[in-house]
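Title: Prediction job returns without error message
Component: structure pipeline
Severity: low
Priority: P3
Assignee: unassigned

Description:
Job completed but the reporter wants confirmation the result is attached to the right record. Sequence as submitted:
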Amino acid sequence: MKWTSKYIFKCHLFSLIFLTELVELDCKHEVYGVNGQQSLLECIVKCKEDDLTIIGVNWKKMGKDLLGYYKGKTNVSTGFQFAVPGWNKTSNVSLLLTNTKMEDMGEYECEVLTDSGHDKNTVILSVTAMKTTPTMNSSPENNIKETIYCNSTDSAEEKMIWWFDEDSKNLTDSSELVAQKKDNGRFSISSKLTVRKDISKHYTCNVLSINGDVERTESFEPRSGPPKDDRSVSQWVAPVVVIGSLIVGLLITLLICRRRSQQRKKTFLLCMNRPFRMLS
């Protein structure tokens, strides 16, 4: 949307009279958006006078008009709108992207025209992929050590992964980071850290953006103590079973012999108690 020469002349006239512009368009210069979510490009009109009337607003990117307002009429492109209802009463001319896409990143220009002057400013939008929770797993190296993996997949940019133990000690220098760029241009990031099994601790991996902001955190606790060796278990289980069987067999044999002995003793006593008959 272009301003008419009458209003442009009016703006220059105010500049000459007051030497400095009475109107300032204050914008947040850098904005970080997330793919698939809303993004807010903040711009507020500030004026040294209390009474301010906004005549026109124009948002554009690379010369293409996205959102325009002039004397009560609004032209809107799909996916863009004023962020604040009743914005012309609050002087908040911020732009809202309702569904941010990767191709939306770039420089945006906002120009505002008021009855007290005009001004323009720019906002740079960076777009990253939607944040996902990193996945963690482990793999035993030997009876003493175990390797923990922290994986962050489908990222629009390269990430950093930092490691910490439960005492907040930074272990990143002991880790190894691998970043792979896939065919679709996105990144898969994986980091591994080797730890001792005999030290039971919580280990945390932080996924950071290229700006150093922590995006996601995940924790993992390795198994405490070395794992049991199945072969050593089988080596002593078999002899124990054999010895146990022999002991049980011996006990059964002793029990049978004892019962037989008791029966013989009982038979002998019965014979002794019977009266003798004299043979004639």
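Comment from assignee: result matches the submitted record. Residues 147 and 194 are 4 Å apart (CA to CA).
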